[in-house]
Amino acid sequence: MAKDNKKMVDAIASMDEDFAQWYTDICLKAELVSYTSVKGCMVIRPYAYAIWENIQRILDGMFKDTGHENVCMPMFIPESLLQKEKDHVEGFAPEVAWVTMGGNEKLDEKLCVRPTSETLFCDHYANIVHSYRDLPKLYNQWVSVVRWEKTTRPFLRSREFLWQEGHTIHETAAEAVEETERMLNVYADFCRDALAMPVVKGMKTESDKFAGAVSTYAIEALMHDGKALQAGTSHYFGDGFAKAFNIQFTDRNNTLQYPHQTSWGVTTRLIGAVIMTHGDNNGLALPPAVAPVQVVIVPVQQHKEGVIDAAAKLRDILKAAGVRVKLDDSDNSPGWKFAEYEMKGVPVRIEIGPKDMESKQCVAVTRHNREKVFISTDCADEVFVNAVRERLTAVHDGLYRNALDNLERRTYKCTSTDEIIKALEENGDGFVKAMWCGEEECEDKVKELTGVGSRCIPFEQEQISDVCVCCGKPAKKMVYWGKAY
Amino acid sequence: MAKDNKKMVDAIASMDEDFAQWYTDICLKAELVSYTSVKGCMVIRPYAYAIWENIQRILDGMFKDTGHENVCMPMFIPESLLQKEKDHVEGFAPEVAWVTMGGNEKLDEKLCVRPTSETLFCDHYANIVHSYRDLPKLYNQWVSVVRWEKTTRPFLRSREFLWQEGHTIHETAAEAVEETERMLNVYADFCRDALAMPVVKGMKTESDKFAGAVSTYAIEALMHDGKALQAGTSHYFGDGFAKAFNIQFTDRNNTLQYPHQTSWGVTTRLIGAVIMTHGDNNGLALPPAVAPVQVVIVPVQQHKEGVIDAAAKLRDILKAAGVRVKLDDSDNSPGWKFAEYEMKGVPVRIEIGPKDMESKQCVAVTRHNREKVFISTDCADEVFVNAVRERLTAVHDGLYRNALDNLERRTYKCTSTDEIIKALEENGDGFVKAMWCGEEECEDKVKELTGVGSRCIPFEQEQISDVCVCCGKPAKKMVYWGKAY
């Protein structure tokens, strides 16, 4: 068993020695992705896609509970449509893929593969929004988008990625701002409750806004290596797109008005965030809410009479209760199986062998801390299921606590750029909390001097000092700074 | 009320006078689609997308129950990859969209937007299939694909459409053939049980096979106007793709072998099939299994005390039981609402007003035949729910029976091309059952002379005569012929 274990573990780099290699190793060894002949694009393999399906199911429920409906726009955007909103086209045109031929014929107008769909939604709104009675429209779509990135990494940055994009249109600015905030909160709640991942909620600085937005809100998470990852964004557009696309409605006073819009999205990047937040040197560690397999049952001495039957009985009880459970009765050794399902991040492993059967119990091992607990099998099904669910909750809570510890331990309050440099050198990468005067020049200079850029202006402000960490002039805001994925 | 009704009904063409216009009218008036600035592509609006989500949910469950896993391949295929299988590229290259630019740079190799993904799956199998232990792989993906069609119609033929594509790879030819048949049966069962749509199962002739397939199986449905619609296909590939992509595995005797493959798919075309199978001059009629709203509750004299409360109570009871129910208490007239939800094809309408409340009942109207039934509300919730469910079943059964009647009434047995011409002239378009010698020449000639092409060679064969309907030589197979969408 020790040998088997070693072989599996040898297969991945140590996260402390080479985090980037560790990440790539997990992506491949846990069978999450596979490279393809299409540069910058990957296959999302069944195990990773099942994680994405769980993410989709939970988020989609949250979207519907907040009144949103799913739609589907075309994947192509004619060049003239993309160009209608000036800031938007400037932001996206340099990184889109262009379709120039259909069959054997050159197209009259080239089409880009959507990098995002604001322009398509606006084109549609112009057709269907005429009166205040038509508002709001609260739409979402689950699709893939394309951005022609030069360097790519699985889940974090790829030329095609899966996401959802919410697009809403409202009578008033206040309603649209409220929606922008509501959806950022939905994302933050989802990260906490489903991904066991704490995030910082805040606003992007002017230089970091989405192309065409009045303001961009974001949730920022801190990875195990101390780098920040933008995990979701929510944009308030004002009426800029409405004016560019001539979307108008008759209001309650019979006056023509421009409506106000929002958009918001999260992507398969969340899978990368889960890997880098919870994984360890034994592999992936998955939060139970999104784990394709929540409980794996490994029979011990399975050739002995009754062992497989006893294991199958536990599987059936858990399955009937809606737990995602797998019984591995293959002829691999228990040690191989232990290592395999640790690599795959299965939250709870149940072991059952002849000795356990004698004492009418089984062993439950929680993935994140390898803690062993005996669970009685000499009880009503419901009692057994609850004991297993309690173990799943323990994994969720343990993962969240560890991630929060990491975030708190790696958040440094600094009042000068020298302090920032020192904090990062002494403690490693992390979030830096520091005051800012609001000038882009200082934002750039902090990055130049210290290597950390502004991540967001958090909603929860704190007065660390009265002056800008860079220029010493009066500070306007406390900012989270960090190196970003 | 009569006037309201008339206004709504006037909005769509009569299906008997202009079926094509009737179809387009339904697509727009029932808010299923909207046209876009992207030629040949449409917006799938929330109501139609919700139908698609129901189709997805049910089919995805059937795929998982038969052991399949979802994955996601890139949307692009490099030209060299598309060209690896000769028949396949010949079939698809003329109708693909080509990406030739990424950002501002010309690509070294152009990429097509997937028209189908056999080549990508093969590229992936070559990486991950090495031993018989790696087989079978039973994969599926839910994505959109692009085919550069010249003339397009909502759902039936568009440049981009949504679909699922199953792709499997097996040790033996027998296993792959079995899979091909299994999935055709899954489609046929789904059409019967979820869409209330009878289909003919059979094999395509050589000239109608999928590009690269050894054999193509299909389900063919008959629309209200007597035209056939191919509703799903399942292909057996033999080892042709494996050889072209050099996919090999070590078998149980330690010998290198080529594996055998299949693929199978259904598309948003199914929504078009539902419209043209069940719709009538009052609009759409949806089978309960895929209807976004299964029951609409319309209060009558809703300003009277207690009416809205009584309606809301029924809604809550049905909702708690898992019925997809909507209460429309807007200030539109009941007549307007009746017409609106008939247009949208809601299977059951419940009316409740002061009189009904007095007699402790409500009225349930089934969409397909406008039959009115009184349902007691003076009973346990469960009894009420079961009575409503019984009405939903009545709609499903009624829709299926009508569709089967149409198919049977419009299926003509013919023994000569003259008989075919006469049958179609006298009875209108439909399926023609006639014998065939197996020669492509005769297949083409039948189409030329009569206007109907071969739809499929049904699995349920019947000996209509001994000789080919065209050349008079000995017949090999009975064939379904028809005009196709």
Key features?
5-stranded mixed β-sheet, homodimer, alpha+beta, 11-stranded mixed β-sheet, globular
Describe the structure.
The structure is a homodimer of 485-residue chains. With 485 residues, chain A is of the alpha+beta class. Chain A is built from 15 helices and 23 strands. In chain A, strands 3-7-8-14-11-10-9-22-23-21-20 form an 11-stranded mixed sheet, sandwiched between helices. A 5-stranded mixed sheet of chain A has the order 16-15-17-18-19, sandwiched between helices. In chain A, α10 links the parallel β15 and β16. The N terminus of chain A is likely disordered. Chains A and B meet through β2, α3, β3, β4 and β5 of A and β2, α3, β3, β4 and β5 of B.
Secondary structure blueprint with pairings:
The structure is a homodimer of 485-residue chains.
Chain A: H1 2-10, H2 19-29, E1 33-35, E2 42-44, H3 46-65, E3 69-70, E4 76-78, H4 79-82, H5 86-92, E5 97-102, E6 105-113, H6 118-128, E7 137-146, E8 160-170, H7 173-193, E9 200-203, E10 215-222, E11 228-238, H8 240-245, E12 249-250, E13 256-257, E14 260-267, H9 269-278, E15 295-299, H10 307-320, E16 325-327, H11 334-343, E17 348-352, H12 354-358, E18 361-366, E19 372-376, H13 381-409, E20 411-413, H14 417-427, E21 431-436, H15 440-450, E22 453-458, E23 477-482
Parallel strand pairs in A: 3-7, 15-16, 15-17, 20-21
Antiparallel strand pairs in A: 1-2, 4-6, 5-6, 7-8, 8-14, 9-10, 9-22, 10-11, 11-14, 12-13, 17-18, 18-19, 21-23, 22-23
